[in-house]
Design goal:
Elements lengths: L7 H4 L7 E7 L3 H11 L4 E5 L2 E3 L9 E3 L6 H8 L1 E5 L2 E2 L2 E3 L5 H6 L6 E5 L8 E2 L14 E7 L7 H4 E2 L1 H9 L12 E2 L2 E2 L1 H9 L13 E2 L2 E3 L4 H14 L7 E5 L7 E6 L1 E7 L14 E2 L2 E2 H10 L5 E6 L3 H8 L5 E3 L7 H11 L6 E6 L7 H13 L4 E6 L2 E2 L3 E4 L3 H6 L7 H6 L4 E5 L12 H7 L11
Parallel strand pairs: 1-8, 1-10, 2-5, 2-8, 4-5, 9-11, 10-14, 10-15, 15-16, 18-21, 18-23, 21-22, 24-27
Antiparallel strand pairs: 3-7, 6-7, 12-13, 16-17, 19-20, 23-26, 24-25, 24-26
Length: about 450
Amino acid sequence: MTATLWTLSAALGIGKRPELIAIVGGGGKSSLMFALAAELPGRVVMTTTTRIFAAQMNHAPTVIYENDLASLGDALDAHGRCLVVGHVEGDKAVGVDPELPARLLARTDVDYVLVEADGSRMRPVKAPAEHEPVIPPGTTLLVPVAGIDALEDIIEDVAHRPENVRRIANEDRPEAVSDQRLIVDDRLTSAGLARLLAHPSGGLKDAPDTARIVPLLNKVETAERLAAAREVAGRLLREPRVARVILGALRKDAPAREVWRRVTAVVMAAGTSSRMGHNKLLLPWGDSAVLERTLGNVVLSCVTGMITVVGHEREATEPIAVRYGPTTINQDYANGMLSSVQTAVRALPSEVEAALVVLGDQPLVGPDILDKVLTAYAENPHGLVAPTFQGRRGNPVIIDRRYFAELLALPASAAPRFLLQKYPDDLLLVDVKSDVILHDLDRPEDYERLRPKTGEIGLTA
């Protein structure tokens, strides 16, 4: 199937249930609110708990004032969406009572409430003051916004409340990030921007415990900004509270460019290697073993997690695997690969949105190919992704969580590719320039043909 574009609602993970969505952080909040409201089905109320420019009221088909909500139902009947504000003072529309958004969502004639809950004086980033943001009770989705152009100039020029930005970046950091430079020459680095967005005094300040967190990186309009935004997204996904990260350009026709989600590589290392005659994963591969090279390639990719499924001769394979990440044991490994995929899927935490199924005997599939498949999944809302070479489909394959239940229900006689065959309209095929995706090490002649020769040690495709 050809690629399709993300909608903002799909990128944010908004379904058909009522939502109270609060938008905080840097510049782009109003643009996001108006663009999302125009896209959502049903009846949508836009509002603010702080202030917005009065001129922005023109982006709404109609405006209702907090002290006179009697006409709200008629306005929604006529237009499907409307803006509710307190009153107008000069060039600003004053925000509503923070308790009002939840009351509005409780109405039977309102499906979604979108709230601009922060101010930034149009700067790409901000760190809130003590009284900010004003997140309404009952918020189900919190969207911290930042412009990726915040990396391109000194903090004083790109940040609202720059002193707070520097404080967050310079305070004691967890050991895991203590060696990262968050500010260089008074400019935020990618690590610094990610820390600001995910910090409890920054983008997550006053975040409700039950709200989903989906940061949006705005102004991703060039290849250089895209590369920087991907790095920020990868760091943000290390924060347990962050569900996914949107890379976009809100003033473009396609405002959501990529959505980076938690994808765990599930590495198949439980099989009996019956056609090889002995455990192929333990065969030498350059200066390591087949399995170790495969795992090393996965670690170098942008996948957000990894789990290795062991079974046959696990006393030999598990010591290799645990050096790279957690393992799980497939007691039914003799039943074939499907049982290993099912074992891995059962072990995945609920926040993981997809599995990247990696064959342990494909050491030639390097991190470049893995990243191409992962990037295709980020660029498109498809639930199945597979690489192809000259029209032939290969591995690894991404399977979205929407198919996990059906995958777990497959009989032992089936294979994971059954899903790819059953749902061709949701399968995105990604062309790659190497045939290594087609080759594994099933037989001795495969190993002899593909293994590194003298002078090739340490190389992957």
